[in-house]
Amino acid sequence: MSVKVLVPTALQKFTNNQATLECNGSTISELFDSLEKACPGIKARLCDESGKPRRFLNLYVNSEDIRFLDGAATPLKEGDEVSIVPAVAGG
Length: 91
Fold this sequence. Notes:
The chain is α+β, with helices and mostly antiparallel strands. Helices cover 18% and strands 25% of the residues. It has helices at 28-38, 42-46, and strands at residues 2-6, 20-24, 57-61, 64-65, 81-86. It comes from Plectonema cf. radiosum LEGE 06105.
């Protein structure tokens, strides 16, 4: 199943400067594994040592924050769009 992934500029060095990727996965965790196969090194930027999404990243499936869904276990289906959005802080 194909899922569209929107990659922020800061991570595009792992994707050959592509802002959009098509990857496979039935959950966010599986999608991360698929991204790692296609773009070696990116998973370490997305996940902590326990495999959970890093706190400074916001992940959305079709505009829904995965923190309010099932986190890394959030199911994905054909045609879903996953956005990776770095957190912004400052004041």
